[in-house]
Specification:
mainly beta, 6-stranded antiparallel beta sheet, 4 helices, elongated
Length: 385
């Protein structure tokens, strides 16, 4: 079947076209402003296979646009691509791939540590995100974004703000795209994906400099031997820079095409559940200065044992840290003993049995763990990567 015959089999004989009087025309050259037509009429170039549509008529001047392209190319690509016969990407269809990042929507991030700003080499910030490997790194949590910055960057490629990917070996050999939606940038910054081996020694890096606001992406095939993957924002260019980058959202997805632009705002409840596998902060109700944290019992004169339940569970046994002053009190109030420290007795993914170490407890007495006249008291459980 010739090109012209294929075209006619696809486009001729439309009942609607007949009713509108928009007969299809053909010729061996492209239509020009003198080629007579009516709005919506198609014109087929039998020499090239291009299809034109009449888009405007002004007196005796006619405008024809190549709206469809070469029919032979369209037909050939459709016939060749049996898995996707229309040769359309997810992004072109307005679709979206799964986002492999956690806590990626920064107008409403999960912020379990509750701070409006963070600083320091390698410090955790909003849940799942860390500051880079320089003491001058910082993060500000804004009303509709976050802003990462570094002052006098000590090294080219300094990580400023990044997330470590869990189970990176599952990604090896496949192509992934990291996209970051930038609200503003000063200095030289880049979107990066960095790969390390089992000892986190550098294997390779993929990065794209941020040249404007909007979405910047980098696409990389995960190399063999990868045991660590960092994704985020890094310094791009010479040392000694002051760099600031305001970020609205980010996405890591399978494939070579970014679909971040098609994504709706994140579901906060879903993101909170994902983040709580890595970090939880136990606080008293309303931060009361004698607020109750848990119930338990004195198993000796120096140890009060209590249970913390995690619901959906944590990734691994967490590291326990505490802030502020605590005490163990009996139910009748006759015993109020200050807590010296906490340690873990046993753990499963859904709960943890803890010991509050004290002096002067009454063995066998049950009671509560509570803040000791301290509204800032909390216990952190971190299973962060």
């Amino acid at each position: 079947m010739s090109i012209e015959e294929r075209y006619k089999s696809q486009y001729f004989g439309s009942e609607m076209d007949e009713r509108l009087g928009k007969a299809h025309h053909s010729g061996s050259s492209d239509p020009d402003s003198g080629t007579v037509g009516v709005l919506g009429q198609r014109y087929f170039n039998t020499a090239t296979g291009d299809v034109f549509v009449c888009t405007a008529v002004s007196g005796s001047v006619y405008t024809w646009e190549n709206k469809i392209g070469a029919v032979e190319n369209i037909i050939s690509s459709h016939m060749a691509d049996t898995e996707n016969p229309h040769a359309v990407t997810v992004d072109q269809m307005g679709g979206s791939n799964k986002n492999l990042l956690h806590n990626w929507y920064f107008p409403k991030p999960v912020n379990g540590r509750g701070q409006s700003s963070y600083s320091g080499n390698g410090s955790m910030t909003i849940d799942r995100w860390k500051l880079g490997n320089a003491s001058a790194c910082a993060l500000m949590v804004n009303s509709a974004s976050v802003t990462t910055s570094i002052t006098n960057s000590p090294n080219y490629g300094n990580w400023m703000f990044y997330q470590l990917i869990e189970n990176p070996k599952l990604l090896i050999g496949n192509t992934y795209t990291l996209s970051v939606d930038i609200a503003s940038v000063t200095g030289n910054a880049a979107v990066f994906m960095r790969f390390g081996n089992s000892s986190d020694t550098f294997i390779s890096i993929g990065q794209t400099p941020i040249s404007s606001i909007g979405i910047t992406s980098v696409t990389v095939t995960i190399p063999e031997g990868t045991s660590t993957i960092r994704v985020g924002i890094a310094v791009s260019g010479a040392t000694g820079q002051d760099v600031t980058c305001e970020i609205v959202r980010a996405k890591l997805e399978l494939g070579s095409v970014s679909t971040l632009a098609n994504d709706p705002p994140a579901d906060y409840g879903e993101q909170l559940a994902l983040c709580q596998r890595y970090f939880r902060r136990l606080k008293s109700f309303n931060n009361n200065n004698f607020g109750v944290f848990a119930t338990g019992g004195c198993i000796s004169t120096t140890q009060f044992r209590f249970l913390v339940e995690f619901g959906l569970g944590m990734r691994v046994a967490p590291t326990i840290t505490s802030n502020g002053n605590f005490r163990v009190s009996s139910w009748d109030g006759s015993m109020n003993i200050a807590v010296n420290s906490f340690n873990n007795q046993s753990f499963n993914s859904n709960n943890e049995l803890l010991i509050a170490n004290c002096s002067g407890l009454t063995s066998g007495v049950s009671g509560i763990l509570q803040a000791n006249n301290d509204t800032t008291a909390y216990i952190d459980f971190s299973a962060d990567l």
